[in-house]
Prior knowledge:
Oligomer: heterotrimer
Low-confidence stretches of chain A: 471-503
Mean pLDDT of chain A: 84
CATH class of chain B: Alpha Beta
CATH superfamily of chain B: Response regulator
Strand content of chain B: 15-25%
CATH architecture of chain B: 3-Layer(aba) Sandwich
Radius of gyration of chain A: 23 Å
Helix content of chain A: 40-55%
Amino acid sequence: xxxxxxxxxxxxxxxxxxxLVATPVLIYFLVINTSLLVLIGLAAWEFLRHNRRTGxxxxxxxxxxxxxQGVSVVVPAYNEEAVIVTSVQAMLSLRYxxxxxxxVDDGSTxxxxxxxxxxxDLVPVQREVPSDLTTRGTIIDVHVPRGGRTRxxxxxxxxxxxxxxxxxxxxxxxxxxxxxVDADSILDPDALIVVTKPFADDPTRVVATGGVIRAANGCKxxxxxxxxxxxxxxxIVRIQVVEYLRAFLLxxxxxxxxxxxxxxxxxxxxxxxxxxxxxGGLDPDSIGEDFELVMRIHRHMIDxxxxxxxxxxxxxxxxxxxxxxxxxxxxxxxxxxRGLWETLWKYRRMLFNPRYGKVGLVAIPYxxxxxxxxxxxxxxxxxxxxxxxxxxxxxxxxxxxxxxxAYGYAILVTLVAIAxxxxxxxxxTRWRDLGAILLVSVLENVGYRQATAWWRMEGWWSSxxxxxxxxxxxxxxxxxxxxxxxxxxxxxxxxxxxxxxxE
Amino acid sequence: xxxxxxxxxxxADDDRDxxxxxxxxxxxxxxxxxxxxxxxAALAAIEADPPRLAILDVMMPGLSGIDVLRKxxxxxxxxxxxxxLLTARSRDSDVDAGFATGASDYVIKPFSPRELLHRVNAxxxxxxx
Amino acid sequence: xxxxxxxxxxxxxxxxxxxxxxxxxxxxxFGRDRGGARSSALLAPYRHALIAMASGEDExxxxxxxxxxxxxxxxxxxxxxxxxxxxxxxxxxxxxxxxLLRSHGEIEAAKRMLISxxxxxxxxxxxLLGLVRDPDSAALVLPLLGDPDEDVRLVAARALGAIGEPSxxxxxxxxxxxxxxxxxxxxxxxxxxxxSMGVQIAPALQIGLASEDPAVRNVCAVVAGLGTFASVxxxxxxxxxxxxxxxxxxxxxxxxxxxxxxxxxxxxxRHTDASETAVLRRTCATALGDLGQRESLDTLVxxxxxxxxxxxxxxxxxxxxxxxxxxARLQEAAAATRPGPSARAALGALDLAxxxxxxxxxxxxx
Lengths: 503, 129, 366
């Protein structure tokens, strides 16, 4: 067989494949971007109403309202000596009439506990932690500040991972609403008021809520509070800022409005304690544990014929440091997509199952088709077009059409998202920042998108071949829903730890 | 003849209307008033040139009134500053929390400007007496 | 159509849309930057007068004179600032601002706007009437509780609460009912409005406690407790015992803890029984502490050894709150010869109470 024969053969193969998948791929991108526009439309409507409403349903009145239920802020922490005291102080001074902070020390080996003890004058108390949820790590002791008035509880336990630590925190929680936050997340001072509002609005129905997470990179932080919001300089961060915007502001808000929100976030979510206990808490063996939790809530509530609601509040509540290097970003996206896959597979019974209403018939299929498979389709399309060009068989109009629909349309969606965000929230006071954001909508498609698609495939693959994800003692996770990603993940060091562990 | 030195008061509120109103009221009453729109500016102003009294809104973005109060009380140079907190919270437990942090007094919104002035006068008189 | 033509059309559409998005963003920002500066420049002279009036410094009525006499177009631009000031102050300045609005015909205009076709206008009108607490408007705002727009209903409920019209209670509870799978009014808005209407709403509460909608029953139970409506205690007892919704039973328990008397000890004690859900048992144990009656002592002591250690802890805390008798019983339990869960729970509570300085206070902690 000569080289020419090989080339000729490849041409035939590529042409055949292209004939087969050309139109489906085009249609795929047409549909995915149109669906994003629909979600954005739903979100835009929601913002319009929200902005109108701020005139008369003020935040200060919510704060003064006597109907607010107490909140337990659960902070799973491992070796956080650098940030823990500032973080806990900031959380204790969140604006809310009634809340407590529960730090669960997951067997730290550094000076974290010593610092807490010194800063808050902790003394041990003889209080058993209830065992409403089964947990694995053995509890060592419980401390509270002397004086017994500051509502802080520090539970020390043997190392057993973040999810298990959170479950211990849920057990120890005394208030009816529970929120999980990582030790190095920075919360907006009004975060509790914002995410408890849906519970205050409809207390017998709402079971879980989430809010908007923004990138803390580049912002000025003083004592655990963001005092100045700036757009970070590195483009890799700016691209993620836009990703967050699409995902949170528009993705989540749109789904919430539609009534089928299946993903809140790992970095920030608030839940009714009794529902968490009812479903058994977080699953310590799951990788996408925040996604898995919400799916389990949906399944449980529907199976038990309960009238319930999972709601998203389109207001910023939390800030997190997003990855700054490609290595850490890769590790994050691999993990997210792996978690997405494993959870969707675990709950495959709900797929297209009319029993599960909008969640089963719309949201879950959407996630399968447009979040899970998206990187695959994108890469296939790209490879085909590239190979076609190389072999000289590409149908040029088709190739350009593909580009227009896959990338041009995506740029449009991003621009619309930015437009709505700007109209509703006017975040960027400087033209320079606004200009940079607009530029991102184009830049994102030149390299970043393709890279993240590849990494997501890597993550999916590692799950399919059964590669074990070895957890270090403490790993933070977030959740990726494909093209509109985001959530969690916080410090780089933990990602680096995670990266080295699942290589 | 030298003019009597006016007592200096700092007011911090991110709500422009309230800020302007309180600054005006206190200026009319004969005080020298400095108004700032956020907690960081308030803290910087207090540390740079301590006033006699500070009126801080609790609900400010970034550093809240309580955050500023805490820092003021922790600083040797400013720990005895009289501070009045302005807030929308009306539950007793919250008022207690405010006092626990070290507030000298607490005014609930919506507030009566005249009452605020009375409280300012009373606090300052107490300090002098 | 050939692929080439489709391509052209697709590209054109996308290109145009992108360009217009960017334009919209830029224009919006530009407009915002300019608009803000321009309107504040125009209104500057009047702002001074407004602040003088709002701070009560307008003794000679100078500011008042200026503001009452502004021309209609100026007033149009000034109105939002006046309305913005109103909820921030109280006392004489608030009354003055209300009068200012009235003098420019705003109250009358608002009453007419209540039946506007635009939901935004209806809401703004109701909001204004609530702000100035115009008692004559109550009857006009009442029908807005049944408005199809949820924002209008919300504003109407708050306005009626601000006005303090007790006859609106039934309407508010009616508006609360679930519509399209969602509560008709935010629960806290309804509750705050009801609580501002005073004790005369008790009959409406009684009807609400028997509503078919659990959301309504729940709000009524909460309001009963926060507003100390002792007259509905019998109904709360029934809800606690028999309601189909766990949330309502818990709210009833909490309310009984606040408004009940010695006769409610039995009801609350009964529901700390092991046959009830953990949540309800715990809520009742806490409510017994709120009640503070010595008749609860035996029940609470009995719970100290319960397998549910949170329940035991709550029971122990309740004993502390009841007072010296409760503390004495705790100390007895703690000193038991055979240390077991009861002793542990008692010790835990005494430990915490000691930290808080609640021991040795004869009236009890809380």
